[in-house]
Amino acid sequence: MTTEIWIALLGTALLISLSPGASAATSMGAGLTYGARGACWSTLGLVSGYGIQILVVALGLSSLITSSPELFAIIKWIGVVYLVWLGLRFWRQRASGEVESLAFAPRHTRFLQALLVNITNPKGLVFLLALIPQFMDPSKPQLPQLVVIGATLLAAEAFVMTGYSGLAATLRHRFADPVAMLWQQRLAGTALIAAAMVLSAATL
């Protein structure tokens, strides 16, 4: 891969990660809820889920989803239901004590929640299937190219999601009183539900 192609890939990867969606909503919700340091587990989950999607595309399994509307619909609605459930969970926090308790959720829970957000986004698989071949040279070995493309996409995702959660975490300090903390949770919940609505409209 030439330097020019890699720079184009990097720019595309950053734009993909910057675009509003479930990942952005999740990282910002994590930043508001857990702070910058605590949100790193959610970021790790998002990046891991994205990595699994890239691996699936590399293995060619996404073609099965593309050719199977039923499978696409099943995966899509699992993601929609999960995001709505997570958003409603934020909304159901009624007291400051409950809100505070969420900040001490186990690390593995934060990781798995974010992982599931990206894994259950089938539109990401279809998009990656269309994107990755654009930066590959069929006359050269495929594996090294896939490694470079995958690493670039993951690095961009990690950088942008860390930025989103960090930005949200700076606002967290402005929500010190119980009422403001309650609205903080509702804001995060609303963002997740909105992301679910976007995902529900995804089509092949």
UniProtKB/TrEMBL annotation:
It comes from the Bacteria. It holds the Pfam family LysE. InterPro entries: LeuE-type (IPR001123). Its main location: membrane. Keywords: Cell membrane, Membrane, Signal, Transmembrane, Transmembrane helix. It is found in: Cell membrane. It is a multi-pass membrane protein. The chain crosses the membrane at residues 34-59, 71-91, 111-131, 143-167. PANTHER family: ARGININE EXPORTER PROTEIN ARGO (PTHR30086), HOMOSERINE_HOMOSERINE LACTONE EFFLUX PROTEIN (PTHR30086:SF14). Belongs to the Rht family. This is LysE family transporter. It comes from Marinobacterium alkalitolerans. The lineage of its organism: Bacteria, Pseudomonadati, Pseudomonadota, Gammaproteobacteria, Oceanospirillales.
